[in-house]
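FORM 7B: Structural annotation worksheet

SECTION A. Query
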Amino acid sequence: MSEHSGRRFRDPWGVPHLRADDPLALAAAQGRVTAYDRAWQIEVERHRAQGTSAAFLGPDALGWDRFVRQVRLDDTARRCHAALDPATSEWVGAYVHGVNAALAAGAARSPEFAATGLRPGRWEPWTPLAVWLGHHILFAGFPGKLWREHVAQRLGPDAVDLFATDGPAVAGSNGWLLAAERTGTGAALLAGDPHRFIEDPGVYQQIRLACPEYDVVGLAVPGVPGIAHFGHAGPVAWAITNAMADYQDVYAERLRRDGPRVQALGPDGWRPAHRHVETIEVAGAEPVEVEVVETDRGPVIAGGPDDENAVSLRYPPRVRGDLGFATLPELLRARTVADVDHALRHWVEPVNVVQAADTAGGLLHRVAGAVPVRHPGNGRRVVPGWDAAYAWQGWHAPMPRAEVVGRSVMANERGLAAPLGVEFAARHRAHRIAELLDARSAWTADEMASVHTDTYLGAAGPLLEVLAESTDLGPAAAALRERLLRWDRRMAADSTDAAAYALLRAAVVRRIAAHPALAELAELPAYPEVFAPWLALTPRVGHALEHLLGATPLPGVDIPALVRAAAEEVGDAAAGQVPWGDLHRLAPWRALPGPDTGPGPRLDGDHDCVLATSSVPGVTHWCFRGPAARFVWDLARRSDSRWVVPLGACGVPGDPHHDDQSAAWLAGDLLPVITDWDQLAEELH
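SECTION B. Predicted structure
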């Protein structure tokens, strides 16, 4: 392999380190190694982004394909690609060329292709943009507005705030930045862990990209060029968390047919809407036709011209024709936090809180992305598309930023991005990280794992407070109460007290969800199935439990009585010696489920711990979302940086590097980031 086409090296964990003569050759090399290591994964994502995954995954994928067609995701990616500046377009094109060059070879070593009969396809110039948008179209949680509308219609508008609470219902992350004076190295440390659905293969790809212009190590998204979210370029490093901003709106639409055409009522009266019909092929079933309608507000994602309750989605990339990809090549060239800051002027989707540090002592803590200015009501519920009061009125600018003094923490809480959002994560993770960081000084990269893996559950307080006031308990329930009041509130896998708390919490959630006062919420509204996770009552109660146990209880619900009944229900079961890890198991998502091999690995943590291994209280103790990677970027010596992913660097089952990082991830260990080329093995094929 010539230097011009790129050279590929591997570290002991199979992480690809790529070298090329120029950025375009390097982008092509990144595309090739991604197709070789992750062919099945990126082809699934390509098909999901264009709404064709049911053709080989079957009826279970139909709901997603229907949504993607209706929201016009692939068309939005095409528009955004057409608007790219020539240099960025050429760079993305080089990556796509690399993917296409190696896709057949990657597919040949991936057994899923033969199992499904899928043949590797061809990537289009806009496919990386579609993959990115597919990952993030639901990231801002707009279906939560459908839930609030459901609550308002069934229980009245005043009931919306009972559930509109900060909680763990959406994706999040931890991140923290320590200035030089707080470390033992004389330079900054930047660390964190993005919380995503744990997927097999993993959603993040450890990689290194080196050419004469730059040398960056970080976590890439397979199918997307560059290193968007977590990178260390040597003189500067950056990381993000979800800002929890509200930037997608859902509009009620009044539609009517006019022969083969469709009209939509807007502020200026009836106007023509775009309409066409698409056919979704479904493996093992008949094809399904989907009517695609788009009004002046946006694509119709639920209902249609023959329904009273049609709703459309308005989201920035479709409105602006821009996905922010111009940031990606600029980030690779960054040398200072000022360069990172400047590159982020392009950023659109998703809206992030960014931290960065450089070797000159520069520090950055800011929000990046596109958030529309509009009526406050848009952030809460479905709003009428025919009322001009709810139209977008431009964009928030400048984005919020804060000075870093000693350290900064970001954990999706109501903080820097508060003016831009409605619901945020509870403060427990952010407060706990700050408490841990402030407990000592002179931190090093190796010591950061103690923060990543902290299992203290601050969210346990409200339930334990109600339990402490419970009287007239039977012997087993009383013993449970005394036991939990002595508990250290750590959700350790070997803790039987943690399991007892989780069993009690689940019982309380189920009893609240089954209460007659909430009966009208139990029946899901008639929205597409892809939105069901946001609309199901028991998960909503589970995620809002801390709030529902607090100062604003549900009308007509005797919370102390429910907690007493739950304690009686689980007292005997919780008296056993079942450890939390026997209940709390990892259940990674796979596009093609394999044979049932029983419960996954035992896990420490819980959704409001810093070690945020999320379950759904009242539904399951199993974990579907957690740290999709952990990292520490050391600005003193990049080779002292650390990282780990849940499985491994390769997406091919049976490959030695498919899951060789699992043991370290489960143990909370971090692996070295090897940057010395002499310690890497070159691949010559």
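SECTION C. Observations
The first strand starts at residue 7 and ends at 10. The radius of gyration is 25 Å.

SECTION D. Sign-off
Analyst initials: ____
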